[in-house]
Amino acid sequence: MESLxxxxxxxxxxxxxxxRLLLWAIDNGQYDDLDKEAWKILADDIEPDKPAPAAxxxxxxxxxxxxxxxxxxxDGN
Amino acid sequence: MVAGSTATALQSLDCFxxxxxxxxxxxxxxxIDGEQRPMCCPGCQAVANLIAGSGMSVFYQQRTAFxxxxxxxxxxxxxxxxNDTSMAQTFCSIGDDGTTRAQLLLGGITCAACTWxxxxxxxxxxxxxFASVNLHQSRLDVRFSTEKIRPSELFEAIAALGYTPRxxxxxxxREQLQQEYKKDLRRLAVAGIGMMQVGMFAIALHAGSIQxxxxxxxxxxxxxxxxxxxxxxxxxxxxFFITAWRHLKQRTLVMxxxxxxxxGIAWLASVWATVRNTGDVYFDSxxxxxxxxLLARFIERRIRERxxxxxxxxxxxxxxxxxxxxxxxxxxxxRKQLVGGEQVLVLPGRVIPIDAxxxxxxxxxxxxxxxxxxxxxTVNAGDSVFAGTVNxxxxxxxxxxxSYLQTRLNALQRSLDSSKHKKPRLAQLADRVASWFxxxxxxxxxxxxxxxxxxxxxxxxxxxxxxxxxxxxCALALATPAALASSANxxxxxxxxxxxxxxxxxxASCNRAVFDKTGTLTxxxxxxxxxxxxxxxxxxxxxxxxxxxxQYSNHPIAAAFxxxxxxxxxxxxxxVSGAGIEGSDGTLRYxxxxxxxxxxxxxxxxxxxxxxxxWIALCATDRPMAWFGLQDEEREEAGPLIRQLHRAGMQVEMxxxxxxxxxxxxxxxxxxxxxxxxxxxQDKLSLVQKRxxxxxxxxxxxxxxxxxxxxxxxxxxxxxxTATDLARSQADFIVNEDDLALVGTTLTHARxxxxxxxxxxxxxxxxxxxxxxxxxxxxxxxxxxxxxxxxSSLLVVLNSLRLQRQGAA
Lengths: 77, 809
Description:
The structure holds two protein chains of two kinds.
Chain A: H1 4-27, H2 34-42, H3 53-74
Chain B: H1 2-7, E1 29-32, E2 35-38, H2 42-53, H3 58-62, H4 85-88, E3 92-94, E4 100-107, H5 112-124, E5 128-134, E6 139-144, H6 151-160, E7 164-167, H7 172-211, H8 215-235, H9 238-249, H10 256-276, H11 283-305, E8 321-326, E9 329-334, E10 343-346, E11 356-360, E12 363-366, H12 368-371, E13 377-379, E14 384-385, E15 390-391, E16 396-400, H13 408-420, H14 429-455, H15 457-470, H16 474-494, E17 496-498, H17 503-508, E18 512-515, E19 522-533, H18 539-550, E20 571-576, E21 580-584, E22 589-593, H19 595-599, E23 614-620, E24 624-634, H20 638-647, E25 651-655, H21 661-669, E26 674-676, H22 681-693, E27 698-702, H23 708-713, E28 716-719, H24 725-730, E29 733-735, H25 741-776, H26 782-801
Parallel strand pairs in B: 18-25, 18-27, 25-26, 27-28, 28-29
Antiparallel strand pairs in B: 1-2, 3-4, 4-6, 4-7, 5-6, 8-9, 8-10, 10-16, 11-14, 11-16, 12-13, 12-15, 17-29, 19-24, 20-21, 21-22, 22-23, 23-24
Helix pairs in contact in B: 7-8, 7-11, 8-10, 8-11, 9-10, 10-11, 10-15, 11-16, 11-26, 14-15, 15-25, 16-25, 16-26, 25-26
C-alpha cells in the first residue's frame, strides 16, 4: 500500500495537466461556439458538389438580375 | 397546437427557402436536387438558384431551420463604401501573414448549416484564405488578400446568399459577455475535474470507513482531498461567496446565501477534521455541489444568451455610407464624417441618415420608427425629416441639421438607456424561501448543539456540523435554474427565444397585458382585401399591370402587390410623389394611385366603392380598370389570444401611436379592457410605469422601434414576428415565427414552469425536513449525506425536464 504515496501525487500531476490543457483550450476560444461544433462533427464529410461550369455562370447571372430587379419592390416590406 | 404548426410547416404551399406561405398564384420555383420547389418571391428564388447552381444544395438537407426571407433592399453600390480605407479600418486589420482580417456581423443565420454554406461559398472565392462563422455570435472571421478581392465583394457574396452582412464592431458589453462566458466555463471545467478527483478519493474513504482503513492512509487521502477541494472552493465557488456577501451588505438574503454558507461551513469543518484527524470530511459533497450548481446556471445562461443582441442600438439601423455634397461634387462618405449644414442626397428606399430639412425634392417618409404608423408623411422643400425614417418615393436633397448626437433617434436611445435601470425586479420565489431556510437551519443547529451538549458533549460539535451539511441546499438552489433552462429550451423549439433574466418566472405572475397595435395585433403591412374590376377587365389583367407598376415604388402600398407572375414590361415609369405611379407598355399609358391622379386620364372612373378600406384606382388611357381595397389586416391569432389572456385572469390594454378610429374599433371588437390611442414612445412608457405603481405586474407586447423603451421597462416583454432589431434587443421574449399565438403559448409555459419550480422547492424542503431529524440524532454518515444530496438534486433535474416534453404546453 506504500505505493499510494507515489501514485496519488502522480494522479494529481495528471489532474493539473488536464486542468491546464482545458483552461488553455477555453482561453484559445475552442469552446466559444458549442452549437456549431456540435453540428459540424456530425456533418464533417459534407462536401459541396462541383458546380456545373456552364450552368452555374448562367444561373448566377439570372439570380443576380432577379435580385436587383426586385430590390426596389421588396423594400416596402 | 403550435408545435403542430412548426412540424407541418413544410407543406407544398410553403416556400422551400424561407418557409413562408407562397401566394396562391405564384409562378416562382427553383430546381433543387432535381426537383422543382415552390418559392414565395423572386428574392428567395434568386438565393435558392444561386445555392443550387453552385452545388451547395446539400445545405437544404442539412439545415434545421428555415432561412430568413431575403430583404433584397441593397442596391448595387451599397457595399462600395467598405472599400474606403477609413471605413475598412473599423473592421479590418492586417494579420502577421500579410492577409487582411475582417470581422463581419451576419444577420439571418438560423442554424449551423448556414455557417457551412457561408464558409464553403467564401472559401471558393479566389483570394480568400480563411473563413469561419461563429454561430454563437453570428460573427464571420475572414482572411483575404486585398490584391485579389475587395471587401465589398465579400459583402456582396454574403448578401447574394440571403444574409445581411455589416461590419462587426466590438463593444464593451459584448466583450464583457464573452469574458464572463469564458470565466464561467473555466470555473465549470475546474469544478468538473476536481469533482472526479475528489470523488475517487472519497470512494476509498467511504469504503475505508465501512471496512476499516489504516489511519495513515485515511490521513493521506483526506489531505489530498483537502488540497483539490480547497482549490475548487477558492476558484470555482468564488461567485457564490461574492454574491452572498454583496447582498448581505444590502441586508437582503438571496439563494446564494445558504449556498455559500453550506460550502463554507462544510469546507471549514472538513479542514478542521483533517488537521485534527477526527470527525468526518465532506469534501466530495462540497465539490459535487459546486459542480452541479455551476452546471445548471451555465446551461440556463447559455440558453438565454444564445441570441442575445444587446449590442444593437438605434444607430445600427442607419446607413454607414451617405452621399454628401463637397464643393460641387457628390461624394460617398462614411456617415460619421457628416456635419451640420452639409447637403445630403437620399435615394428612394434608403434610410434618412440624419435629422435634416428638405432642401429640394419631394417624397413621402415612413416614420413608423417614431409613431408606429405605416402610412408615410408627404414632405416637400422646407419640411423637417428625421434620422431613422425611410424615404419611400422620390429623391431628396437634405440640409443636415446637426450631428447624430442631436437627432431624435439618439434621444430615443437615451430614453432607452435610462429606462433600462427602471425595470422593477420581482423578488424571486427561491430568494424568499432562502431567507426562511437560513433562519430555520441556524435555529435547528443551535437547538441540536444545545441538546447534544446535555447528552454527549464530545459529539455535540460533529452532530451539529452534520446538520448543517445535510441540510445542503443543493436541490433548493437547483430548483429554479433547472426549471427555467428546461422551459427556455422547450420554447426555443417552438420559436420563442427567452433572454430576460428570470423572465419566465416574472411572466407567470403578470396580471396586465399591454399591446401595441400596428405590426403586433395587425400584420403591420397593407394587404389586398378587395378588387373591384371594371366590366371589361379581368382580375388577372388588373393584378399584373398593378404589380408591374408597383414594383417601381417603395411606398408601403407597393408591398401589398407582391409579384406573383411574370409581368408585362413597362417603359417610362414615373413615380409621382403623393399621387401614384405611371407607366406605358408602348401603346397605352397606365396609372395606379389616388382617385384624382387616375381620373386625370380616365374621367369615366366609377365612384370609390363602399367599405372600410384604403382604396386606390388603376386605369389606362382608354378605360378605367379596377379599384383595389387595401387594409392592414388583423392577425387571425389576435382574437383567440386576447380571449386566452382574459381567461387567464389578465386585464388587456391597447396602447398605439395610431390615432384613427380603426384602433378603437379593433379594441372593442377584440374586447380590450382599455384602449389608448395617439401615443408616442414616452406616453407608452408613462402608461406602463403608472400601472406598475398601481401594483400591477405588466407584460408588454410590441414590435417597433417606438416600443423599444417600453419593452425595456415592462416586467416582462415580447417582441413579435417582424420586430425591429432594437425592439428585439430590449424584449425578454422574442417570437421568431410569424405567429402571435406563441405569446399565449409562452404564458402557458411560464405558468407551468412556475408550478414545476414550486414542486421542486417543496421537494427540496421536504428532503431536508426528513434528513434533518436523522442528522440531528447523529445517525447520518458522510457517504449517506453525499448520496442523499445527489439523489434529491437528480430528482429536481428530472422533474424540470418534464417541461421539455412535447405537448407540455
